[in-house]
Write a structure and sequence with these properties.
4-stranded antiparallel beta sheet, 1 helix, 154 residues, Rieske Iron-sulfur Protein, 3-stranded antiparallel beta sheet
């Protein structure tokens, strides 16, 4: 019995490799154009100072949280913006824009929250100043204990 082996010349081999690489690159490019996954969006909120529970307590005497001792001080922690506003009140809101899942930033000078992705702006309670975001940021209740100098979130 005679066995036949098919051979692949160099040109055909590299042509197939190139086509395969091109298909992989194209599929990655197309998948990056799709909408973000649902899990990225924190979902709509009523704004204000009520919201989900985090169980997070920050001691403002700790060096990592010392920025919150001053009005206008803020930090990013556990996917939230935690800030002390110009008037001295504390806020905690989701750090994920409800429009496209971009990470938002606290603007202490403007006393607002800004999305650098598409220009949405939010009040400190998470409500919308201007879009394109169509729903407010999720806000969390904050409770400050001046005796122990701790801030409880949620």
């Amino acid at each position: 019995m005679k066995t036949t082996h098919q051979t692949l010349d160099r040109r055909t081999f590299f042509s197939l490799v190139g086509t395969s690489i091109g298909a992989i690159v194209l599929s990655n490019c197309l998948s990056s154009c799709s909408a973000p996954a649902e899990a990225v969006s924190p979902g709509p909120s009523t704004g204000g100072t009520t919201g989900g529970s985090t169980g997070l307590t920050l001691n403002l005497n700790d060096a990592a949280n010392a920025k919150l001792k001053q009005n206008g001080g803020f930090l990013y922690k556990n996917g939230m913006i935690i800030a002390r506003t110009k008037d001295g009140s504390f806020i905690a809101v989701s750090q994920v824009c409800t429009h496209a899942g971009v990470t938002v930033e606290f603007d202490a000078a403007g006393n607002r929250i800004h999305c650098p992705g598409h220009g949405s702006n939010f009040k400190n309670d998470g409500s919308i100043i201007n879009g394109p975001a169509g729903s407010p940021l999720k806000a969390f209740k904050t409770t400050f204990d001046s005796t122990s100098n701790t801030l409880k979130i949620g």
